[in-house]
Amino acid sequence: TAATQPSTDWHLKENAREHHTSKFSGDELVVRRGQAFTVTFSGTEQPEQNLIFIAETGPKPSKATKTLATFGISSTASTEGWSAVLQSTSSSSVSISISSPHNAVIGRYRLSVQSTASGSPSTARLGTFVLLFNPWFSGDDVFMPSEAECEEYVLEEFGIIFAGNKNHISGFGWNFGQFQGDILDICLSIMDRSLYYRQDPVTDVSHRHDPRYLGRVLSAMVNANDDQGVVLGNWSGTYEGGKNPTSWTGSGEILQTWKKSGFKPVRYGQCWVFAAVLTTVLRCLGIPTRTITNFSSAHDADGNLRVDEFYDAEGNHLERGADSIWNFHVWNESWFTRNDLGPSYSGWQVLDATPQEESGGIYQCGPASRNAIKEGEVDLEYDCPFVFAEVNADCMYWNYDSATGKKTLILSKSTEIGESISTKAVGRDDRVDVTRDYKYEEGSTKERDIFKKARKKLGLEDKFDPTAPTQEEIEQKPDISGKFKVAGSLEVGKDLNLLLVLVNLQPHAKTVHVKMTAWSTLYTRRPVREIWKDSISVTLSPKEEKQFPIKIKYNEYQQQLTTDKTIQVTAICHVEDGVQVLVQRNIALDNPAINVQVLGEAKVNKEVDVEVVFTNPIDAEVTDCVLQVEGSDLLTGILELRIPPLKASEKSSTKFKLIPSEAGPKHLLVNFSCDKFADIKTFKMVNVTN
C-alpha cells in the first residue's frame, strides 16, 4: 500500500557544499558517491528501527546489476554498500545520513522508504537525487589528490583551447558551462541515447560505475556518426545549413540546441568543438577532464605509423590517400585509474570524440593510457596505435605524376609530428607544454627505440611494407636547401610578406627551376582555393644563399581565405642534374584585435557596463557586423548585438550591461564577426565581488 506522501527536506545547501555541487543550478539534490548526505522526512509514524530504504536507478533495477539497494538503519556507515545512519528524530520527522559505495553506478536515483508500522508494509517515495563521480574521495576511481586540480578539471567552467600551428600558437576562450541551466539533465540524456543503451539498457546502466566505460561511450555520443549524437562534423570549408565551427564560443548553446531540436545532431563541429563538448559532459558527471592540442597531428588511416603527402610538379598539394597531417588537433584527457591495465597505466587517459577512424565498428576513441603511449605499449586497450601515430608517425613527402602514376620520394621526416602538445595551466590563463608526457625527446635513442618497439608490436617490423620506398626511390642527398621566412606581420587585412631562402650546398654552381603555389586551407591542411602561383629560375653560385621576396596582397587572398585563416605556401625546386627539393610553410593569420573593458566594479546582482571597441583596419567598409557575448555566472545564455557598418579605419564602440550572479574570477567571451573578418575572439577575466 502507498503511504501518505511524506515531505522530504534534502538539505540542498548543506549537502551541496559538502559534495562540491553548489554550482549546479537546479532544485534537485546532486551528490557525489562514496560520501554521506543528509535527508529529513516526515509522515512515517513508527520506530525508525523498522525503516527500510530503497535506492534504485535505471529502467529495471536489480541487486544483481547493482542498480538497486535496500538498506536499514545501522549504527555506522558501511564502507561496502549503501547504508543509513540515524542523525536525529522528533515527534514528526526523522533525519538520516545516507552513504553510497565508492563504486556506485552514477545517474538519477529514486529513493523510497518502507515501513511496517501497522503490520502491513507500506512504501513511500521520498523523491529523486543525482549521484556523480567523486574526485575528492580517495576510494573513487577518479580520485585526484590535488585540490587545485579538482577545482580546474571538474569545477572550472572556462577553458582555453590552443590552435594555430607549431610556428604560431594561438589560444581562444571557451565556456564549458557544465553547471548552467539543464546541462546536467542533458548529460544524463546523452547516456540514455547511446547505441550501448539502446541495445541493452540494463547492462549499459550497470556499467555506469566505470569512468573507463563511460568515457568510451561518451566519446562516441558527442559525434553524430552511428548514433545521432550531439555534433555533426564538417570539414568541407562550406557550412550551409548550420553554424561555422569557428563561430561557437561555448558548449551550452550546442547542448541546448541538440535537446530543443528533439536530439538532432547540431551542425557543425570540428575537432575542438567535439573536445570541448566532451569536456563539458565529463566535468559535469565528475570525471576530471581537460582539452589537449597536438600540433602537426598525424591522421594515420592505414595503421602503418606513417603518413604520406603527395605534391605535383607545380607544387600543388594533392588530396591522395587517406593519411593527413593536421596543423593541430584537439582531444581530451580524463583522469582515472586503469584497473584493467594496472597502476602504472592509471592517471591521464586520452579520449577523442572527433570521428576520424572507427574503433569496434563505431566512431569512438579511447581511453588510451597516456603512459602506455609514451612507452610504446600500443597493444593495450583502447586505440593506442591511432593515438601513438598522432604524436609519433613518420612523414613521407612524395612527388606524384598523375599521367604515369609514378611517385618519387622527395623527403622523409621523423621529427615533424606531435609538437608543442598544449593544455591550459591549472588556475591560470596560460599554456603548459605536455609534449614530454607523450614521448621521449625527439631524436633521442630512447624515442627511436620506443618507435621501433611500437612498430614491432603492430607487426610492421618484418612485414613487407608496400609503401616503403624501393631501392631507386631511397632518398638521395639534395644539392640545395630551402625555407620560407616570414617578413612582417601575419594579420588578416594586411599583405603577406615572405622570403624564399635557397642555399646551394655544393661547391659548384646549380641551376634551379622553382614552381610556387599558395592555397587557402582548412586547419587540417586540406587545400580549398588557389590564391597565387609563380615560377622563377635561378642559378646559385657555389655555396651561395639567395633570398627571393614574395608578396601576396590582401586583395589577392581575401576572397579565397577560409575562416580557419590558414595558407599553405609550397615551392617545388627542380634542380638541374639533381633531386627535387620541397619547401613548404603553413601560415596561420591572426585576426585584428578587439578590446574589452569592464567599466566599474563587478558585484553580485549589480549591473555593470562593458565596452567593446573594434577598429576597422582595412581601407574598405565592413558590413554585417555582429557581436556575440557569453560567460557563465555573468549573463544567461548568449547576448547578440548587431553593429552598424564601419567605414575604412572607423572605430566602433559598443556598450552592454552584465548582472553577475556569483562571486569569484569569471570569464567573459566575446566574438565579433563581419563580412571581411570571421570570428574575432577574445576573453576578459572579470573579478566579481560580493
- Assign an overall shape: globular
Number of helices: 13
Architecture (CATH level 2) name of the largest domain: Alpha-Beta Complex
First-last Cα distance: 50 Å
Query: Strand share of the residues?
Result: 35-45%
How would you characterize the largest beta sheet?
A: 9 strands, mixed
In CATH terms, the superfamily of the largest domain is Transglutaminase-like
CATH-assigned fold name of the largest domain: Coagulation Factor XIII, Chain A, domain 2
- What's the number of extended β-strand segments? 38
Strand order of the largest sheet: 1-3-7-6-5-4-8-9-2
- Which whole number gives the mean pLDDT? 94
Q: Structural class, please?
A: alpha+beta
| CATH class bucket of the largest domain | Alpha Beta
Nearest-angstrom radius of gyration?
Answer: 29 Å
How many structural domains can be distinguished in the coordinates? 4
Helical content class: 10-25%
Unreliable runs: none
Structure description:
The chain is an alpha+beta fold and 690 residues long. It has 4 domains: 7-132, Immunoglobulin-like, CATH 2.60.40.10; 159-458, Alpha-Beta Complex (Coagulation Factor XIII, Chain A, domain 2); 477-588, Immunoglobulin-like (Sandwich), CATH 2.60.40; 594-688, Immunoglobulins (Immunoglobulin-like), CATH 2.60.40. It has 13 helices and 38 strands. A 9-stranded mixed sheet has the order 1-3-7-6-5-4-8-9-2, with helices on one face. It has a 6-stranded antiparallel sheet with strand order 19-18-17-14-22-23, with helices on both faces. The protein is globular, with a radius of gyration of 29 Å.
